[in-house]
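Q: What structure does this chain adopt?
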Amino acid sequence: MIHETGLDVRRHDLDVDTLPEEEFDLIHGRAVVHNLKDPAEAVGRLASALKPGGWILLEDVEWSATLGQPDGLIVHPDAARPVVVKVWRAILGLMRKNGYNFDVARQLPTLLVDEDLVDVGAEVRASLVWGGSPPAGSAIRTIERFQDDLIGAADITEPEIDQTIAMLNDPSSALVRPAMVAAWGRRPHGDGGGGTQGMPPRTETVRSWMRTSPLFAKASEVEMSRVASLADELHVEEGEELTVEGQPGNTFFVIAKGTATVSRGGTRLVGLGPGSYFGEIALIEQGPRTATVTADSRMWLFVFDAKGFASLMNGIPSVANEIFRALAERKRNVKR
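A:
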């Protein structure tokens, strides 16, 4: 256990370890439940660990569409589809062989209801992933993780893997990744009351965080809903490079939590924190990254691919004005 500045970080095995009763105001698990031997039992322990009035949010991947019709995987350009589908079909086969629970995501709302939680809700979200983006990098790491088994036992050739990875690195290519199910619920108060308001939808949660950024200070509520629909979420660890000087880039970043350092030529320029944004220069000028941005801590960011960024610039004047203002200021700083 690590204890620092009031924060406890504990390692816990949900399959075997017990949790303290009624201790937590919020429990969040992302892509965790499918790894558990008995998801229902584990969710029961999590629910018991909530304080009265506490919330639980569980997220997991919904594979049914991909499993049912892998040939229907949305891939751009279409010429890349046969190889990409073949590789992902093989990966799914290996996951099934290794005991992956493909059914748990759709069961999440039921698991929460079975624990007598209230205000249970859920949403399903799938997003288009453009090559070269952080989510595409995650897909590449999945392929690399299974690479030896794919070549050895799944009738996949090394050139086919290389072709799929190249497609995921190509900013002009894209695919729709499997949907993510988010399900939430609240432990009722002892009197069964406590209100009837459910957990805010994702768009409201995203909007509340984005309001901390000067980029969206003048955007209307309707415009903020549009922003939330365009954003994807990215979690990175300390030390990860979000942009690399001189490399191409097609992603725009807004920091929700954590800090980062901007450097050029190995020299530190400035630090960034919650509400800061970066990555717009390469997108506007269609050139390479002008600086390297490195995470100083664990970070939670909202990211926009090239099309999403274009929608911000073309559809929300206050955002475009703020970005151009910041761009001019950053260019002045470069010349100093």
